[in-house]
User: What shape does this take?
Amino acid sequence: MKLPALLSLFIFATFASAQDGYISLFNGKDLTGWDGDPKLWKVEDGVIIGTCTGPDAMANNSFLIWRGGEVKDFELHVKVRVEGDNNSGIQYRSRELPEVAPWVITGYQCDIHPAIEHTGMTYEEKGRGIFGLNGTNVLLDPTGALWKLSEHEPVKVDVSQWNKYTIIARGNHLVHMINGMVTSELTDCDESKRSLAGLLAIQLHRGNANNVYITDILLKVLPAAELVPFDPANFPAGAVKIEKPRTKSPQGTGPVVPPTKK
Assistant: This one.
């Protein structure tokens, strides 16, 4: 994002907070500045609510997209909770897939998932899949191979309660946090597939009935950071190449409810 684009971003975000350079992307009243399926999204009592009524309600995951411009290097704070055995996520540096359906997104996601290993993980919706589970610091090399640089105790939260999710994107280094604790980090050295700028959005997941609640959306634009080069000489001791993680929990922690046969 070049400097002139930043000016338009700040002009658009009229609901600004000067504190520490953050701007508020939600006015607490309506979906001004946001774009999503009006059948799925609404605002009540100062909270954005997305509702999936069940397996027959949506053909695809649907997204509420911020139309204030693209995000590049930034720090984002969002308070979210999810009711129902399903998950949500915060998309960033993403792009739309109009050939699939309106309000469908591909790109980086900070997952919000009732399975502890998945919440706060680094993931790419409709793309390269899971990178780093909750509790890992990973790197993608120029061939797309995945390396685990380090690991720590996963951050345990109840996603049905309000939690603060933080995303810090600087160059090709991405950090996810919940309630101030780091869940996962990704350094993306896969130049052909990584994204350095794109859309910001909130996910409503198809399938099992669920509601996602969002409030206090604060964005700070950061100065452009230098890209981290791929250099195994700088890897920490114990770094190891791993297979990309897979999931047994595509929606929540229980069984996936199938759509009604017609």
